[in-house]
Amino acid sequence: MPSSPVHDALAALVRHLEERRAGGEEWVWLSPKARKELRDLPKVLVAARPAPGKPAPAPPKEVAPPEPRVTAEPARPGGPVTVPPSPPKLVAPGASKGEKLRWLAERVADCPEVRALDSLRETRVFSTGNPDARLMFVGEAPGAEEERQGEPFVGPAGQLLTRMIAAMGLQREETYITNIVKFRPAVPNQGESNRKPTREEMAACLDFVLAEIEIVKPEVIVALGATAACGLLGSEEPVGRLRNQFHSLGEVPLMVTFHPSYLLRNTNLSERRKVWEDLLLVMERLQLPISPKQRAFFTA
Ligand code: URA
What we know:
Blueprint: H1 5-22, H2 32-39, H3 41-48, E1 82-83, H4 97-109, H5 112-115, E2 120-124, E3 127-129, E4 135-139, H6 144-149, H7 156-167, E5 176-179, E6 183-185, H8 199-216, E7 220-224, H9 225-233, H10 239-242, E8 246-249, E9 252-257, H11 260-265, H12 269-285, H13 292-295
Parallel strand pairs: 1-8, 4-5, 4-7, 7-9
Antiparallel strand pairs: 2-6, 3-5, 8-9
Helix pairs in contact: 4-8
The structure holds uracil.
């Protein structure tokens, strides 16, 4: 392809989309404006062609990639990630944790940064569980059932999460369950279809999640799946390399494990065992009792 600002931008777009596909994203939501701009691209490409005898326009300046979340030690691949403590950007008013969380839930519904993204649907699904929980689970984004019921993790993946929590000897209500994105990502002809949230959607909701962590002050966070891990730790590593060790999100130890919907798709005992090993480490960290029977779950 000849080099011109438009061609270079197009090549950068293709690279970006390929990276996202390699990261597991199957959908990219495009606003009507972006769809129109893509439709008009052939005309722009023709117009950008230098007239015969004229020099090609100067290449555009390098655009810096978006800042990754700061990690104190970039860490060896597969090693623990440390996100240094930083003051929360959103400080919720209220006398109790519950009041502060309610304020956040109301605020996110009219947050201009979130609303500017017309790629998210209207219904807010904030969080559920105990504001004093010792253990917090962070998932990806609500799906169809969560949107209907207004509560995170109530569909098939949520039912599996509830069983995983029970296997730890806890009740779902004792834990705090939230998502990195508070609205269901939109897709054309939505029906029951869901998609992973984009980086922009995660970035728009991140301050709310960090404020939730600051309010609840869990002793351990479990990030369910690569999207939650990427949103919280800024790491693009796959779950297989991040799991089974504690990372640090400020002062809070954070375990990454596979998302329950991955376990619904991949029913191998070995994958269930991996998640269970991660949860055993969490139980040890919380000093929860572990019986020999629990230690042996999912071993052949
Ligand atoms: N998957 C998620 O990540 N979150 C939900 O709330 C439901 C399914």
